[in-house]
Design goal:
The protein has no helices and 51 strands. It has 625 residues and is mainly β. Strand 47 (535-539) and strand 48 (545-549) form a beta hairpin.
């Protein structure tokens, strides 16, 4: 029996042929086996010949219990009792972290936190106890995250093999389940159980947890940098390119960071953009520059081999690619702008058609095609292409129908300074502008049908007095069409949320400039990477940081992207988590985040709209069912 009051019952039995004459009470007595105090007995109650009391033991050990008639009888037969007041104790064992083995250019394990399990892993936790009277079915385990939130307790299964204790059990704990508002930190696993007499005991262990998944080093000793955002294929393949003057490669990595192939193409400045999957086959489009000119490539996703090229003469690519279906055949076409001498041409690559490399050049007179601003996007809806550049040194935003050498009606439009980012939201073009040599720029919109001028959205007032380099559009506070962007007004650096309907602005301070495009994820999270590589998760509703990775990763020249949770083969796995890919310097970093992919309700949740980088709102935002 355990600690606390124990019910005791004695019954007087009347012999056959006799009439019962029950006394009001019986004399109960308990003594320890060594004659010492036995504990406390409560007042005796009677129901006919049944007498009841409650006994609280004086301690643990052996006791003798007797009951006697108050007048005539001697004691009943002695009953021996054993009192057990010691609760079971549990030893909780968390094995060393399964960090993975470095191979090729891929390394695993958080360099700032030793022996850390990943947020997306499942830990086999072992429980041991030497309690001789354990109730095995009562042993349960729960996991506690950073804010005290605890997962529902799960049962522990007894080990069938050798056990170095009275009881050995194991259970599997998903580290993605409890709250974890930190990039790296600790979680606590707690075990509880009881013995057969009701004594409850516990045990716990604390272990390290990180969001760091893997790092792939494509820098070749520090020479190469990643200057264009990575793209994600239908099965989670991660494609990205490197850049070192006129040299560079395209890499394909599995979701676990293993290199699948690499392709030498030249310095990658545009793309990758991933084509639509056809039975598992998808083309990977990039714009890359060599010594004398640039080339658009269509690469095979299976091995990186070249399917098609398009090489205009005497020039270079400077910005992104967009992907749409163009022409009478409505064939998949990757489109960009090629800067050639003092003018530009619009270039497409359309594999498998009679015109694999269509070019659109300016007419002999009239409006020239603006020279694309370095690093800026090209976006499209249907056959309409939108991009930013300069003509005769004047900043321009323009729109063309693919295949037509003159701009669409009411285009181009002249923004106040250089445009850095474009997004197609509803019937508008939303843009960001920033000068480099002085504080000038802001956020604006233009109807996609064109206009005489841009409409400034931010900053308020009468001046373009803040640099804005990039933007994403998603939901917050149950309202759609919130623009998330970094700003650099004089004297401060901010991260902002601007609602296109109410024009309400919510700013938050940032430790460094946010020039890469934010990523709007599922579950109300927004992710940013600053110019020095500080990565942060924000609440979309309150614009407060949920966690921050510091120190920074290094120079960030390309925007991050977000994918679903997958296994090494690319198949989706369960959980409310995902993977954020952040390029910095010549390395690609993968971090576990609390968003199951992109916000599928967002009109423009990341750089170039979707995980394939198509720059086209007709491309579905990849869901993670």
């Amino acid at each position: 029996m355990g600690a606390g009051a124990v019910p005791v019952t004695a019954e007087l039995v009347v012999g056959s042929g006799f009439v019962g004459n029950f006394p009001e009470t019986l004399n109960f007595r308990v003594v320890a086996s060594d004659g010492g105090a036995g504990g406390m007995l409560t007042t005796v109650t009677r129901s006919e010949g049944v007498y009841s009391t409650q006994w609280t033991p004086a301690g643990e050990g052996e006791f003798r219990l007797t009951a006697a008639h108050p007048q005539d009888g001697g004691p009943s037969a002695t009953v021996s009792l054993t009192a057990d007041m010691t609760p079971p104790t549990f030893v909780v064992f968390v094995p060393p972290a399964d960090a993975g083995v470095a191979a090729g250019g891929t390394t695993y394990g958080d360099p700032s936190l030793a022996d850390a399990w990943r947020r997306d892993q499942v830990v086999p936790v072992e429980i041991r106890t030497n309690e001789p009277h354990l109730d095995p079915g009562s042993v349960m385990v729960a996991l506690t995250g950073t804010d005290g939130g605890t997962t529902p307790a799960v049962a522990v299964a007894a080990l069938s093999g050798a056990c170095d204790a009275g009881f050995c059990g194991v259970t599997q704990l998903n580290l993605r389940e409890p709250p974890f508002d930190a990039f790296r930190g600790t979680m606590t696993v707690s075990a509880q159980g009881r013995d057969t007499v009701g004594n409850s005991g516990s045990g716990s262990a604390t272990f390290n947890v990180t969001r760091w998944k893997w790092t792939f080093d494509a820098s070749a000793g520090g020479t190469f940098a990643i200057k264009a955002p990575p793209a994600i294929g239908a099965r989670g393949m991660v494609y990205f390119g490197t850049n070192a003057n006129t040299n560079g490669k395209v890499f394909a990595l599995s979701p676990e960071g293993t290199q699948i192939w690499e392709s030498q193409v030249g310095a990658v400045v545009g793309g990758p953009v991933v084509g639509a999957s056809d039975g598992g086959t998808e083309l990977v489009y990039v714009g890359a520059n060599s010594t004398n000119n640039g080339t658009l490539y269509a690469l095979q996703s299976e091995d990186g081999g070249t399917r098609q090229t398009c090489t205009p003469s005497n020039g270079a690519f400077e910005g992104a690619l967009a992907l749409g279906t163009t022409g009478t055949a409505q064939a998949e076409t990757a489109v960009s702008v090629y800067n050639s001498n003092s003018s530009a041409i619009i270039v497409g690559i359309r594999p498998g058609t009679s015109v694999p490399c269509p070019l659109i050049e300016s007419p002999g007179s009239g409006e020239p095609i603006p020279v694309l601003t370095a690093g800026t996007p090209v976006v499209m809806r249907n056959d309409n292409i939108f991009f930013a550049g300069a003509a005769s040194g004047v900043p321009k935003i323009t729109s063309y129908v693919f295949g037509v050498s003159v701009p669409r009606s009411n285009w181009p439009v002249s923004p106040p300074v250089v445009t850095r980012s474009l997004a197609l939201v509803g019937s508008d073009v939303i843009g960001a502008a920033a000068a480099t040599d002085f504080v000038n720029g802001g956020l604006f919109k233009i109807p996609q049908d064109g206009a005489a001028d841009v409409s400034r959205l931010y900053p308020a007032g009468a001046s373009w007095s803040s640099r804005v380099y990039s933007l994403a559009v998603g939901s917050a506070m149950e309202t759609p069409d919130n623009v998330f962007f970094g700003s650099e007004p004089t004297g401060s650096i901010n991260f902002n949320r601007f609602n296109l309907s109410s024009t309400a602005l919510q700013p938050a301070s940032s430790n460094a400039a946010i020039r890469a495009t934010p990523v709007v994820g599922a579950n109300g999270n927004v992710y940013t990477a600053t110019t020095n590589g500080t990565v942060r998760a924000w609440s979309a509703d309150t614009l407060t940081p949920r966690w921050t990775l510091t120190p920074g990763l290094g120079t960030v020249e390309a925007s991050p992207t977000l994918d679903c949770p997958r296994d090494a083969s690319g198949s989706l796995v369960a959980g409310s988590h995902g993977v954020l890919y952040v390029p910095a310097g010549g390395k690609l970093y993968a971090f576990v985040v609390d968003s199951r992919g992109l916000d599928t309700s967002a009109p423009w949740p990341k750089y170039q709209h979707d995980s394939r980088n198509t720059g086209n709102p007709a491309t579905p935002i990849t869901s993670c069912p």
